[in-house]
Amino acid sequence: DEKHSAPNGRNGHNGHDKAAGEDARTLTTRQGHPLSDNQNLRTLGNRGPATLENYQFIEKISHFDRERIPERVVHARGAGAHGTFEAYGKVGDEDIAKYTRAKLFNTKGKETPVFVRFSTVGHGGHSPETLRDPRGFAVKFYTEDGNWDLVGNNLKVFFIRDAMKFPDLIHSQKPDPVFNRQTGERIFDFISNTPEAMHMVSFLFSPWGIPANYRQMQGSGVNTYKWVNDKGEAMLVKYHWEPMQGVKNLTQAEAEKIQAKNFNHATQDLYENIKKGNFPKWELRVQLMSDDEHPELNFDPLDDTKIWPEDQFPHLPVGMMTLNRNPENYFAEVEQVAFGTGVLVDGLDFSDDKMLQGRTFSYSDTQRYRVGPNYLQLPINAPKVRVATNQRDGQMAYHVDAAPGQNLHTNYEPSSLNGLTEAKPAGPDHMPEYNGRLMRQTLDRENNFEQAGERYRQHEDWERDDLINNMSGALAGAAEVIQTKMLELCTNCDPDWGQRLREGIAHAKEMMMKDEQAVEEAEEISHEAKPY
Ligand code: HEM
């Protein structure tokens, strides 16, 4: 099959002639030895015992024993695809160069290759794709200036606004450390003590918490970044992906129907649509804001629990992404790909968003552990431009990141012996001025409930009904103190939300009792098997 054959020259094949009895598809060991028996151990007689010098067998099994690397601590379950990003050469109707000198955006029609990984967050690598969870939406742009990663989610806001809280947030949503099941009680124990999470809750427990698939969902960078122009001036920027396929979400009941038959439906949907040429597309849109504290707003622009209102900060299109090629190998590409919020190109910068700064440490740190210190030498992670560093060695160093003609003895800088030299700055540095006290304090203008209440009222009726049902179900079995705190938080967002949740929890408790009876009855009529 031509389509599934490896390109010539792969694996460093040196083109030596084949031995007699061998052709291009002959099985070999990893040492290049042709393998004539892949079925039988070498044994003393055909009933064994086996010998220890079974080199091929030991190679095969011991490699198999090491086939897994640690899965991502979050976002372990994912699917990915290759594609391209095509720039519009402007931002909305304006000249984009006014705001950013990033080259990938500057010319109409400029194409940049991308790799995208979508994911769920809380559970393991083969968990159902119908679970209530944010969805990851991570894009690696292989630009002419090196890689840019935009590591986003489908929802535009997040649970917390300080990176210090991230491990606690995640622990509360992961399976219980004793009996290894996720529980509504632990999730809402954390949330009921984290009022800034209410905006996220208003989405996550509605159908927006279960996108129908990966193609029909939005994406967002969530955190605030900066754009820097050729004078070194900066604007705050937020990124959003708008799917040309539309947005589709599932109620809990719809998700359960799918999950009963298929827990891989989103991975399957993405792969099969790309395979049949139905390429999904997303438009990249940005919101821009001048780089200051904006005292006129009732929230801080660096608070990732808030949406920047679209009527004041319009979504301005900058380009279109098309996913048009499936991975050849899930592990090599989707599992080993490594995205990070620190991976920016010239013309893009960090803001002071405390979540973004915490994230930026976390990603490459975990990847040095999860994939290995040389993860950037893997083809899926390597930039598609020249790489010339003095970083050397470490586990699985695959090649030397040297420049052509570089003196290979000179793995340091500065040097007069034909080593690497620093680049000229692409433009003036963005140099914001700081004057403040070092402290541990949350942002002013917390305003935890207003946008959450707006979202509650903006939901369609069926979305609001589902939100109440899902929260009631998750809270019905929780300790009363957690129910009480959640009722208070919801009431603060909108009194109707509090009232309906109170009724919902009472109803869900009754249903729980009925369910328990039904399980007992079902156990009575279940078919017992005879031991043999
Ligand atoms: C994955 C940390 C917040 C989106 C990860 C991983 C870590 C992490 C350690 C695993 C990376 C890997 O193994 O390659 C954090 C921390 C956060 C944070 C410390 C807060 C302080 C967020 C937010 C978003 C987000 C707000 C959404 C904008 C993602 C995505 C992935 C991911 C999409 C999966 C990337 C992939 O597909 O490989 N995060 N995260 N994270 N995170 Fe975060």
TrEMBL record:
State a single Gene Ontology molecular function: heme binding
Q: Which cofactor does it need?
A: heme
* Any one Gene Ontology cellular component term annotated for this protein: cytoplasm
Record-annotated Catalase core domain positions = 28-421
Give the family this protein belongs to, as stated in its UniProt record.
Answer: Belongs to the catalase family.
Locate the region Disordered: 1-21
Function statement: Decomposes hydrogen peroxide into water and oxygen; serves to protect cells from the toxic effects of hydrogen peroxide.
InterPro entries according to UniProt: Catalase (IPR018028), Catalase_AS (IPR024708), Catalase_clade1/3 (IPR024711), Catalase_core (IPR011614), Catalase_haem_BS (IPR002226), Catalase_immune_responsive (IPR010582), Catalase_sf (IPR020835)
Q: Which GO terms describe its biological process?
A: hydrogen peroxide catabolic process; response to hydrogen peroxide
Task: Kindly identify the residues recorded as the active site.
Answer: 75, 153
Q: What's the EC number here?
A: 1.11.1.6
Keywords from the UniProt entry: Heme, Hydrogen peroxide, Iron, Metal-binding, Oxidoreductase, Peroxidase
Q: Which named protein is this?
A: Catalase
One matching Pfam family? Catalase
